Automatic annotation (TrEMBL):
CDD domains: HATPase_RsbW-like. InterPro entries: Anti-sigma-factor_SerPK, HATPase_C_sf, HATPase_dom. Keywords: Kinase, Serine/threonine-protein kinase, Transferase. Gene3D superfamilies: Histidine kinase-like ATPase, C-terminal domain (3.30.565.10). It holds the Pfam family HATPase_c_2. Residues 143-259 form the Histidine kinase/HSP90-like ATPase domain. This is Histidine kinase/HSP90-like ATPase domain-containing protein.
């Protein structure tokens, strides 16, 4: 399976033997471990994964290169592109490379954007250097796998939109959060965490559960209308109203997230 699948605003990430991604919804940090010999296939997969990680508006994306074989340093171009993409599409997000091979480091030092990329000896060191997220707002709610959890998550959204003075975003945000929580209750059957934050120009919504399988977008033309409404209409609504949405693996399962643009109120 491709590590990243979906439409233009949809980013569904799955782990592979060469790319292992882990998102932390509490800190807004996504870790990416790149393994194997650098070549065309790994380059393309890594570029798609970086785009998906930064689409989520994280605080940082930390890339571990300890198991990357790149004797010619060719991956430097991908890290420079990732840095520029983060600066243009996700202001405030940073890219940090850990245990960077010598050849890659040499190539980075020869490029202006390469010299701007953060470097660290290890993931713990990279995390220790990060500042506390400069989010205007962040709250979360730990919930059980119970049908009433969707209602409680909507109240979390209600409070956030009132405090942030986003009355027009209340309905769309509650619809998205309800769908994410209901799916987690139905399919994961585990405890979950619902979170809402203000990240730059976006209202960020997320649900973390303990089930690794990513959400499935149902093709509406393959099912009768009643079956589609029952099985897959919710995520199609999310896709239609969110600026971007997707799923990232986490240490214990996955994080399903969405953003709503809030600049134009």
């Amino acid at each position: 399976m491709e590590p990243v699948t979906g439409a233009d605003n949809t980013f569904l990430v799955v782990n592979t033997t060469q790319l292992v991604v882990s998102n932390d919804v509490a800190t807004g940090v996504t870790e990416v471990r790149v393994r194997g010999r650098w070549g065309g296939e790994l380059r393309a997969a890594t570029a798609r994964a970086l785009r998906a990680c930064f689409a989520e508006s994280p605080q940082a994306v930390i890339v571990d290169l300890a198991q990357l074989s790149d004797p010619d340093g060719d991956s430097a171009a991908t890290w420079c592109t990732g840095h520029r993409f983060a600066a243009s599409r996700s202001p405030g997000s940073v890219l940090v490379l850990c245990e960077t091979p010598a050849a890659v480091l040499h190539r980075l030092q020869g490029a202006p954007s390469g010299r701007a990329i953060g470097l660290a000896m290890s993931i713990p060191q990279a995390r220790a250097r990060l500042h506390r997220p400069a989010w205007a707002y962040h709250e979360h709610l730990d919930l059980p796998a119970h049908p009433d959890s969707a209602r409680r998550a909507r109240l979390l959204i209600d409070d956030a939109c009132q405090l942030l003075r986003l009355p027009r975003h209340r309905g769309p945000a509650q619809l998205i959060m309800s769908e994410f929580v209901a799916n987690a209750v139905r399919h994961a059957g585990s405890d979950l965490r619902a979170a809402v934050s203000s990240r730059g120009g976006y209202l960020h919504l997320a649900v973390q559960d303990q089930h690794a399988a990513m959400p499935q977008l149902i093709d509406p033309y393959r099912y009768p209308p009643a079956a589609f409404i029952e099985r897959g209409a919710g995520l199609r609504f999310v896709q239609a109203i969110a600026h971007a949405w997707g799923s990232l693996p986490s240490r214990a399962g996955k994080v399903v997230w969405a953003t709503l643009a809030v600049d134009a109120r």
